[in-house]
Amino acid sequence: MVDVLSQNEIDALLAALSSGEMDAEDLKKEEVTRKVSVYDFKRAVRFSKDHIRSLIRIHENFARYLTTYFSAQLRTFVQINVVDVEQLPYDEFIRSIPKMTILNIFEAEPLEGRMVLEVHPNVAYAMLDRVLGGQGIAPAKMNSLTEIETTIMERIFARTFDSLQEAWKTVIDISPRLEALETNPQFMQVVSPNETIALISFSTKIGDTTGMINLCIPHVVLEPIMPRLSVHHWFVSQKKERIPEEVHILEQRVHKAKLEIKAELGETNITVKEFLELAVGDVLSLNKPIEEGLHVKVGDKLKFIGSPGTIRDRLAIQVDEIVSEGAAEEYDE
After folding, report:
1. Where is the Flagellar motor switch protein FliN-like C-terminal domain (predicted)?
2. Closest-CA residue to 208 (of 101, 135, 274, 317)
3. 147-158 and 160-167 helices cross at what angle (nearest 10)?
4. Phi then psi dihedrals of residue 127, to 5 deg
5. I need a surface site. Which of 53, 97, 151, 168 has the fewest CB within 10 A?
6. How far apart are CA 101 and CA 185, in angstroms?
């Protein structure tokens, strides 16, 4: 962290430089020698800034989905926002959460490994109280969950993984599934203590109760899809291959589509007076010789050149030529 000097320290430093007590060249040399940074192998950097930004985008959507879900379930004001995304050792995460908390351990196929959704007791008990018909106020003293309370908690949080699945759709289709619900972090060992995790923290407000929800995702779980968390993946559209069944259904629907086909003998221009005076037997001179083929249009596009005729005493057109793309302009001229 960069130290900020007070005004008195700045004045003292300038005075020392002016009086000659401190040499500016010595300061420059000292600055050069201090460009070595300490690296902690227990806190290895596994997620780049690019990865962190992608995780923020994904879980901002997750926070919006959770807000909608909990608002409908609890029928009260709910606000959930992403506060921070950081990387740290798993052991440090375990030591930072309360000894009595709600830990939802889950898997998300096809990703391999387990993840944790930790919910602060204030938030979890406020949800439980609200579901059971209360005001949504967390008790002053947190006791162990009864079997009935555990079952209710599992049902509440099992549905939250639908929101997680929706939020991750832009990267990968996952199928999160709740494996277990624990209350003591010491009994939960998801990965080794020194394994790097991505910790996504959400500030949560339910009515007048506030607390945190933390999502712990080990690096080993995300490692196979790390390239998908880059900016390149977000902005480059990938061509989706259609399965044969989809192609067959699409072809059937296209074949049933109705199109307007019309054959044009030619064009001419007359005045309104001439149009009003038209009578049976009058002849209109068109802008095209009789030996030239008729233009057959599908909608407003010229597609065929044909010859007029009759079939069983009905007017018909015989297709003589198929107009390729780009050739229509030559015929229009």
Report:
1. 252-323
2. 135
3. 20
4. -65, -45
5. 151
6. 8
Single-letter code of the amino acid located at 70: F
Instruction: Enter the tokens of residue 220.
Output: 């080993």
- Closest by CA to 137, choosing from 71, 65, 76, is 76
Cβ-proximal residues to 114 (8 Å cutoff; 6+ apart), any chain: 105, 106, 107, 179, 190, 191, 218, 221
What tokens does 97 get?
A: 């959460």
Work out whether strand 196-206 and strand 261-264 pair parallel, antiparallel, or are unpaired.
unpaired
Q: Which residues contact 320 (CB under 8 A, 6 or more apart)?
A: 293, 304, 305, 306, 307
H helices of the chain, where? Answer: 7-19, 24-33, 49-74, 90-96, 121-131, 147-158, 160-167, 219-222, 231-235, 244-255, 272-276, 328-332
CA dist 183 and 209 (Å) reads 20
> In whole angstroms, what is the distance from residue 8 CA to residue 136 CA?
51
Summarize pLDDT for 97-151 with one digit per residue, the tens: 888 888 899 999 999 989 999 998 888 888 888 888 887 777 767 677 888 888 8
Tokens describing residue 225: 């899809």
pLDDT score recorded for residue 328? 58
Q: How buried is 110 (Cβ within 10 angstroms: 0-12 exposed, 13-18 middle, 19+ buried)?
A: exposed
pLDDT beyond 90 at 63? yes
Q: Read out DSSP for 124-184? A: HHHHHHHHTTS-----SS--PPPHHHHHHHHHHHHTHHHHHHHHTTTT---EEEEEEEES-
Pairing of strands 261-264, 114-119: unpaired
Q: What CA–CA distance (Å, rounded) separates 66 from 63?
A: 5
In this structure, the number of other CB atoms found within 10 A of the CB of residue 289 comes to 7
221-270 residue pLDDT tens: 988 888 888 765 555 544 455 567 778 888 888 888 888 888 887 888 88
